[in-house]
Amino acid sequence: MTEQLHFDPDLAALFLANYAEAVRAANSLSVSLRRTARLFPLGGVELLNLDEESQERLDAFRVRYASLQDILSNKLFRSLLALEEEPALTMLDVLHSMEKREILGSYKTWKRLRELRNAFMHDYPDEEDLKALALTEAHATAPVLLGLLNSLRQYATVKIGLSVKDLPEMLQ
Predict the structure, then answer these.
(1) What is the pLDDT of residues 136-155, one digit of tens each?
(2) Which 3-state string (H, E, C) describes 12-57?
(3) Predicted TM-score (pTM) of this structure
(4) Can you state the angle between helices 128-155 and 9-36, rounded to 10 degrees?
(5) What is the CATH number of domain 9-166?
(6) Which of 61, 68, 123, 154 qualifies as a FRET site for 48, CA 20 to 30 Å off?
């Protein structure tokens, strides 16, 4: 006889809503990855000289990358911990908990993804080469963000026992 898992229905609903939001953000990021692929690798001179359409695509990529990262860390990871009744007081606690659950490979990986986000989201004059380098690396590491959502989905279905029908996969 299998054990029936019980969750606070409000916490389960919050987790599922956050998951759905993350899937929408991940799907948008996947579109941006395809639409910007020809722009990379990107240098500072190229960044300054992008045509309007390419600039808009790159701006969408930046926002979508940052959005997925924020949803994962500030909403989805935290709501998973709440669902499992594990307190997480700091972001470091949250990240270590995700690492312990093997959702996040390492804290250092997340730290690097966050550094990249910060490097390309802030506009500093005369630092186009650094911004272009950060964008190029972010484009290369965006699949890591997408993979985190897949790892979280697997954890939620296998380890927690949530239904796969409630946790749709990302579009490819």
Answers:
(1) 999 999 999 999 999 999 99
(2) HHHHHHHHHHHHHHHHHHHHHHHHHHHHCCCCHHHHHCCCHHHHHH
(3) 0.91
(4) 140
(5) 1.20.120
(6) 68
